[in-house]
Amino acid sequence: MPHPFIPYGRQSVSEADIEAVCAVLRSDWLTQGPTLPRFEAGVAARCGAAHAVAVNSATSALHLACLALGLGPGDTLWTSPNTFVASANCARYCGALVDFVDIDPKSYNLCPVALERKLERAAQTGSLPKVLVPVHFSGQPCAMERIAELAAAYGVRVVEDASHAIGASYQEEPVGNCRYSDLTVFSFHPVKIVTTGEGGMLLTQSPELNERLVRLRSHGITRDPALMEGEPDGDWYYQQLELGFNYRMTDLQAALGLSQLERLEEFVERRRLLAERYRELLEGLPLVLPWQASEARSAWHLFVVRLDPERARLTRRQLFDQLRQAGVGVNVHYQPVHTQPYYRRLGFAPGMFPQAEAYYAQALTLPLYPGLEEAQQDRVVGLVREALS
Ligand SMILES: *Cc1c(COP(=O)(O)O)cnc(C)c1O
């Protein structure tokens, strides 16, 4: 009998999760009802943030983050080239420019040294960015203390794209507490650590940013008389103060998220255990295994290995194809964003961010998710061993 396909990532939905969603379906509120603020409060408390604003995706969250920080035409946002396109696209939605800071070849995260040099040059040419988006790639937190120091020195606002990193910690504190940023964004897409089907969240310590995000999430409308221009006509009255969107999360999604949040520690612990197991089982092969910062604990969204071209007798492409043919859903994260046709049309070209490009040429993501059984993991490792021996 053929083995069932093993994906690179997969949600873990329990009976309790299903019950929680069904309870909302039987209730009076399907969207933005009483469950949404409970989910927001749950994540805020878990992460040590004063405010949390749930939205319908991390992409929407990144867009609102840019708007709330005043990013617009004439401004620039910098991010890592080793990320999903959404980390850069959010600036384009606001009519702003995008540029990239190359990665550190060890952590695969935005490199603080490259950032320092690029900021120095930009200061001289009057082209400093307004917003910087470090991405906690694979769940491994960026060097946030240094990044925040540099950002503060040059007056740059910081948005952490923590789509991979709910449940991770940095300097013994949870990612999401915004100690080193203005805002942190989480994704609840099914392959991420915690899911709501589709969904995202913004965390901040700032009451002003929170107020702005809540308004932008729902058409730019407020029902709070204190925020209105003039007096309300009556209880039905609302005002649209600016141009916002419908980026609301439903209560169905919030119920799933709230129920999943109870298993966050379990999810991350299981991922950590499997990552440790990969590390032991892959020892001695011509692969570069994930590096871990001493001051951080990864949420282990992805387990990425790099094929050492000096020692391996086949290419990444061949290894990828062999594993896929054997029913293992290996993947590649990420094609450097600046090499996408859309970004090439904006003037970017291969060669501009050599570390991200060199990393991409060798990278392979192995399956990692809480429901991955050890026997399945053994099978993946066996196939990798066979291909590389
Ligand atoms: C998944 C992801 C996003 C987008 O998340 P959605 O919730 O699917 O919009 C943004 N940034 C990174 C790094 C991601 O991995």
Order of helices and strands: HHEHEHEHEHEEEEEHEEHHEEEHHHEH
Span between N and C termini?
26 Å
Low-confidence stretches: none
Can you tell me the number of structural domains? 2
CATH class of the largest domain: Alpha Beta
**Rounded radius of gyration (Å):** 22 Å
The fraction of residues assigned to DSSP E strands is 5-15%
CATH superfamily membership of the largest domain: Type I PLP-dependent aspartate aminotransferase-like (Major domain)
Number of helices: 13
Overall form = globular
Q: Reading side by side through the largest sheet, how are the strands ordered?
A: 1-9-8-5-4-2-3
**What small molecules does the structure contain?**
pyridoxal-5'-phosphate
Total count of strands: 15
In the CATH hierarchy, what is the architecture of the largest domain at level 2?
A: 3-Layer(aba) Sandwich
- Helix-and-strand structural type: alpha/beta
Mean pLDDT: 97
Query: Can you give the helix content as a percent range?
Result: 25-40%
Largest sheet: 7 strands, mixed
Could you say what the CATH topology of the largest domain is called? Aspartate Aminotransferase, domain 2
Describe how the helices and strands are arranged.
Layout: H1 15-25, H2 35-47, E1 51-55, H3 58-68, E2 76-79, H4 86-93, E3 97-100, H5 112-125, E4 131-133, H6 144-153, E5 157-161, E6 169-170, E7 173-174, E8 183-187, E9 200-204, H7 207-217, E10 221-222, E11 239-240, H8 251-261, H9 264-281, E12 287-288, E13 296-297, E14 303-307, H10 316-325, H11 341-345, H12 354-362, E15 363-366, H13 374-388
Parallel strand pairs: 2-3, 2-4, 4-5, 5-8
Antiparallel strand pairs: 1-9, 6-7, 6-13, 8-9, 10-11, 12-14, 14-15
The structure holds pyridoxal-5'-phosphate.
